[in-house]
């Protein structure tokens, strides 16, 4: 199925979870994740199922002053 991660399209298995999407892009912590603009807590990454055309945003914190 097709999903979008940080505005780039990807093809994943139908049973994919958020954790699979993070592995696909080789995400390095720390980061926050939203699926279709809804925050997904880290404790749910392995449980939260993805669906066709889901939009996933992986957001890294910005530091500075």
Q: What class would the helix/strand composition place it in? A: mainly beta
Count of helix runs: 1
- How much is the radius of gyration in Å? 12 Å
Helix content: 10-25%
> Reading side by side through the largest sheet, how are the strands ordered?
2-1-5-3-4
**Poorly predicted parts:** none
Shape: globular
Distance between the termini: 41 Å
The fraction of residues in strands falls at: 25-35%
Q: How many E strands?
A: 5
Q: Overview of this structure, please?
A:
InterPro entries: Beta-grasp_dom_sf (IPR012675), Mopterin_synth/thiamin_S_b (IPR016155), Thi_S (IPR010035), ThiS/MoaD-like (IPR003749). By secondary structure, this protein is mainly beta. It is 11% helix and 31% strand. The chain has a five-stranded mixed beta sheet, with helices on one face.
Task: Give the helices and strands, then pairings.
Blueprint (H helix, E strand, L loop, with lengths): L1 E4 L2 E4 L6 H7 L7 E4 L2 E3 L14 E5 L6
Parallel strand pairs: 1-5
Antiparallel strand pairs: 1-2, 3-4, 3-5
Protein name: Sulfur carrier protein
Organism: Polynucleobacter sphagniphilus
Pfam family, one: ThiS
């Amino acid at each position: 199925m097709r999903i979008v991660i940080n505005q780039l399209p990807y093809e994943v298995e139908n049973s994919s979870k958020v954790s699979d999407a993070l592995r696909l892009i080789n995400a390095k912590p720390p980061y926050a994740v939203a699926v279709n603009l809804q925050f997904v807590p880290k404790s749910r990454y392995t449980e939260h199922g993805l669906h066709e055309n889901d939009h996933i945003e992986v957001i890294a914190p910005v530091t500075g002053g």
